Amino acid sequence: MKNIGIIIELDEGKIKEINFGMITLARAPDSDLFAFVLDADVTAVREDLESYGITKIVDVALASDQRNNPAVRAKAIANGIKEYGIGAVFGLSTATGKDLLPRIAAQLEAPLVMDCFTVDLENNLAWTSRYSGKTSASIKVTGDIVVFGVRPNAVEPVKGQVSSRILKFDGSRIVSRGFKFVKRAAGDTSVKISLAEADVIISGGRGMKNGDNFSILSKCAEKLNGAVGASRAAVDSGWVPYSMQVGLTGEKVSPRVYIGCGISGSIQHFAGMKTSGLIIAINTDKHASLMADCDYSVLADVLELIPEITRHLENG
Amino acid sequence: MQIYVCVKHVPDSSAVITVLGDNQIDENVIFLLNPYDEHAVTEAVKIKNSLPDSEVIAVCLGKDDAEKTLRSALAMGADRGILVVSDAPHESIEIARVLKTVMAQDGIPGLIITGKESIDAKGMQTMFRIGALFDFPVATNVIRLDIEGDIAIVDSELSGGAVDTYEMSLPCVIGAGRGLNTPKYPTFPDVVKSKKKVVKKIALAELDIGTSKADMWIVGLEPLVLVRKPKEITGDTDEVAREVIRILREEAKVI
After folding, report:
1. Minimal Cα distance from A176: which residue of B?
2. Are A95 and A216 in a shared domain?
């Protein structure tokens, strides 16, 4: 019997959809699946977790003033991993995971592969991209505990109903020496879904002409329940914040649909979105690289086409 | 204060990567200082200039050729460099042990800065492993760093542009994000001056990095090529919009 740990990511107490693909990937025959849920009402997420095969829900309670402290959160999970004899840990390679998973792996001196597209748990192999997204690497990990950061949306969720037991884990006395959380400043609150999680991403580049025009993309993205991204050219021009950048030095994304608007498609941009399911390029320049390396190309002005698409979506 | 900057010698992001054998690449391409490490060096030099009696030491694990990357760091203002020479590939568990050992052997780190990730491996973990080995606090994706006495006040960027502020006691480890600063690229006189700076080379075999039960290594490497054959959507704006929506609905099934 193997014990597998899964770190669940929540959004204001609700389970994010992207967890289900990760749980599907982590499921293995003859194993116990431990879902770590931090500081939340586990009864509200129990049914969802059971429907994907979670057999144990670890209800981790933290001291109220330590809830946002990443060092404390990591320590609580690392302690739980040891307590329950867990040999393999899965988390999401989201912005939160990029801080949390390395902290856990470092504390346990466990190998960690971030941004995995897939994992072969039986052979301790994980696949991720290397060299600016130009190669796919299979990485062998060895150790008492191994950790995998799964790329959101990389695995299609498949249900597998089981029943679960709730385990209470008291982390309220955990503190972090020399590390203090002071405050959190909310980002753009109009952002409803993050780039890493979105099924649809509409990204703007130089062809957007200015920052104000990005609202055209936001309106369309809202109708599609998607997120808005940007190329480095748009970020460097000061039109949109860095947190919106897709590419080698920005967010790496794998949405089901990526719509590149007025984006030339540099190697660096491509490194961040090439694994998207379907790519649609819209540009007035038919020679833009993205127009030759996509599934659908449209020779058009995004500033006219996108509002038209939004209008059609609004009118059903 | 001794400020250590951990740097990595990486292939240029626009280099053509050719896979050789099972798990190697043709290294006959341009290598340079990892872009995120440029922010780390720039920040270290900025802090040095505000703190008397400080020194910036750039450390690197790599092949002999990685001296070029250390020279870039020196041209950007680091005072001296240490290169741990090894021809073998290394992953973060080992890299952290090597860098920790060499820093502890060289001096007393007051602050350790590195890029939040390397553009070749994107493991995003070496700074945390160094922190764990020293038992120093760590913050990554740092976009503001202020040193006040023996405390570092940092802003760390989360998703959606949200920002956390942390206070860490020194010594601590910082993973530099892109928003931290604008890298200060060297002038010609900087480059000339840097040639006189010392790069000490140590063979990896000379270091006692201890042993770890855990390990990770690349067993296979393949070009990641997804061949797409674009179909052109034509028509007037109304027709194109309808066709895009049809694709989203019927092919991608996202609406």
Report:
1. B137
2. no
